[in-house]
Amino acid sequence: MRSSDIHLLTLTGIGGVGKTRLALKVAEELLETFTDGVYFVPLASVSNPMLVLTTIAQVFELGEFGERKLLERLKAHIQKKCILLLLDNFEQVIPAAPLLVEVLVACPSVKMLVTSREALRIHGEYEHVVLPLPLPDPKHVPDRMTLTSYTAIQLFLQHALAVKRDFQLTEENVHAIVKLCVHLDGLPLAIELAARHLKLFSPQKLLTRMGRRLPVLTGGMRDISERQSSLRNTIKWSYDLLNLQEQRVFRRLSVFASGCLPEAIEALCATIDDAPVTIVDNTTSLLDKHLIQSRAGGDGETRLLMLETIREYAQECLEAGGEEDIARSAHAEFYLTLAEEAEPELRKAQQVLWLERLEQEHDNLRSALHWLTSQEDDEKALRICAALWRFWVMRGHLSEGSQWLERILAGSRDKVTQIRAKALEGAGRIAIYQSNLDRATCIFTELAALFPTLGDKRIAALSFNAMGYVQRHKGEYTAAQAKFEQSLALYQDIQDRWGIAETLWLMSDRAYFQGDCRTALALGRESLSIYQELGDKANMPTVLLSLATILTFQGEYEQARILLEESIAISYELGDKHGFNYAYGLSIIGRITFYNGDCIKGLALLQQSLQIFRELDIQRGIAHALGFLGHLTLHRRDPAAARTFLEEGLSRSMKLDDKWIMTICLDGLGKVLAVQKQTRWAALLWGRSDALRETITTYSRPVERIDYKPLISCVRTALGEKAFMTAWEEGRRMSRGEIWTALVSSIPYTAQQDESMLCSDTHSCSDKPASSVLEQIDELTAREQEVLGLVTLGLTDAQVAERLIISTRTVNAHLCSIYNKLGVTSRSAAIYRATHQHLLQTDFGHGSEM
Q1: Dihedral angle sign, alpha carbons of residues 456, 459, 462, 467
Q2: 329-455 in CATH: which number?
Q3: Which residues, 6 or more positions from 87, have their beta carbon under 8 angstroms from its beta carbon?
Q4: What is the DSSP letter of 260?
Q5: Are 129 and 101 within 8 A, CB to CB?
Q6: Which bin fits 351, alpha (ψ -120 to 50), beta or left (φ > 0)?
Q7: Which is an annotated GO molecular function term of this record (predicted)?
Q8: N or C, fewer C-beta in 10 Å, the chain?
Q9: What are the backbone angles phi and psi of residue 10, rounded to the nearest 5°?
Q10: What is the chain's alpha carbon radius of gyration, rounded to the nearest angstrom?
């Protein structure tokens, strides 16, 4: 207002946003600038534009004499004066706006500050939109000093103290206060009205009464106008100024949750009305009056938004007019069409754009599902779920997707349709992601039963893959491979490239868990190639992670890191910034970082991975991360913390019946107890792990197990051979329940540590330099070189023993000697030395075929 270029400034915004408060504050600051005075002209009680001039003249105590017009007298009176006119609430007398231009042209030293719910749209006008107050994030409430820097919080506390002098911001009420201000959209009037209720209610209690805002937000000060005494009256004032078509569009916009694109409201109105409604003009008018807002989306499209306080009033009007049913049905129809249009695109090159579109419309899709289920329209609800499940999986909405699918599938059990088959597929896949393998088995069994009726080979192939996946997790590798081969044959028969790619990945995964890394890499790369050919980025991160896992086990950390970075980059592009693939990628990078010597950063990455898995409630991911955190924490010489991680990991893996993770945790707990001088219990847990490993497969154990053989030798020596084998065999015979009872009841926590044991386990984050290893390689005996050569081919202890016609115990002894001579502490490190530093000269045969 001090600028010489500005003579008319209009403060616009929705009712209750604080335009008058701001204008008065500005006027106060400008008192010295305008030497002839600042004049306040209230127009709230003026509804006739013809009376605006009279109201302004009354401020200057002017009257009409003879034939001289009032306008001329006003201009003559203020023409040479330096004054500011504050015209408050101009929205209802906008036809009088040209009068202001005439006055300003005649009076160059006069300026006007106007408050209005919409711009005046006259020459020379500058508009400043008054927005709701900035708000803190209720999910991440800042410290008190930062929090009280937010104007919304300051205003709440100011009015709270006005009604309750001893009111304080405390740890108990701070979250409720933040949520209240957010719930009220940062509108000053709403915050003021809410704070007045603190005479009766605590902020926490008041928040629970805010399910519907408008009935609560009443009881304003007596010295304000009636329309500002409640939020409903304030909004009604704006609504009553709309024409009939604007009111109709305003009401219908209330069915959209979190806003909509302009074409959505156009489609909704076209569905309801026979005659077209001029949506563009009416929507623009609502924007001008600040009853709705516009915001550019990530794709550049304009999105229409309505503050929740305004939306609540609009919904009341919609219900009162008897329009709710037809509007919500049209809304549900529009979003059903959108979901089904998006479904095939989620597997194509434009999937990123469609994922973002569905994310933006997620609240509307939820609203549509709620409406359809409330109307018992299970058929349309099932169609939405069948179309959306990939989106739910790809964006990490697993729990929500599962709840919708289970609920709606339960209500349509008599349907034998392709739609139900799609929905069952989605429910089954989500159950697998959530580690609920028993539920997944039931769902895919039901899906397979639809095959005879529907005759769709894809259903049979999908069911085989799902059953094989469950069997793989239970360690039934041979049965799993048979299922995958059946599935692959069916997919090849119907030329389903997506199905072929997925099956190849599953077969790669199975090969890896049986130690056949060469086959696993070949199958994984073939799967990735097909997905790249199809342009299906959604499945690439999973395959890239699998390949990176194999390379990590082989010690090829740099190649693994390249694949991990590519996987995470694609996940980011897809918007999966906190999903399964991202979390699993962090887990692998954490281990690589740890083994490369940056232990602190490696543990931090694993902790971040664990946090994401917990947020997503992916139980297998949680157990997996806990297991490796336990091992790596022990490497950092903190056995007490390691035991905490490992016990939780074991508990979760037992509930999941995941024998692979159980062995990881049992191995780790045995190491912890060995370090804590509880050597008998260590041998007992290792015995149980050994027996459990045999049930996974008759040939091999999970390859990612962190090796503990050097520590076994130390424990064997400490106990003596007889006591060691007695404890080992006792552990092999114990049930899961007995093991768990022993852990929580019989095995005490202790601060004692055997430093020699600890050093045996925590030899180094990195292996010895190559020169040191090369100096020692000549010390390997011929038999040790044979054993090492077969191990590098992926053979297990039992397979090595069978090949060399020796006992597994002898193989174990040779490996312990090899580790000591090479200066390594794990099987993977020994393999890495042998393969990448060319330590072996002998060709040991066709290990990959074993």
Answers
A1: negative
A2: 1.25.40.10
A3: 41, 43, 56, 100, 112, 113, 114, 115
A4: B
A5: no
A6: alpha
A7: DNA binding
A8: N
A9: -110, 125
A10: 36
Angle at 98 between CA 38 and CA 233, to 5 degrees: 70
Name the percent of the chain lying above pLDDT 90.
56
CA-to-CA distance for 567 and 844, rounded, in angstroms?
A: 35
**Structure confidence by residue, pLDDT tens digits, 186-226:** 999 999 999 999 988 999 999 998 877 887 777 655 545 55
Model confidence pLDDT, tens digit, residues 55-102: 999 999 887 653 458 899 999 999 999 999 999 999 999 999 999 999
Distance between CA 565 and CA 753 in Å, rounded?
Answer: 39
| pLDDT tens-digit map of 138-196 | 988 888 888 999 999 999 999 999 999 999 999 899 999 999 999 999 999 999 999 99
The alpha carbon of residue 246 and the mean position of all alpha carbons in its chain are separated, in whole angstroms, by 37
- Residue carrying the six token digits 């007019």: 321
Record: fold of 770-849: Arc Repressor Mutant, subunit A (1.10.10)
Bridge partner list, 125:
8
> Do residues 552 and 520 make contact, with C-beta atoms less than 8 angstroms apart?
no
Overall fold of domain 8-129: Rossmann fold (3.40.50)
Q: What would the two tokens of residue 76 be?
A: 């003559």
Answer whether residue 840 shows pLDDT above 70: no
Mean pLDDT along residues 302-329: 95
- What is the domain partition of the chain in residue ranges? 8-129, 144-232, 329-455, 536-614, 618-766, 770-849
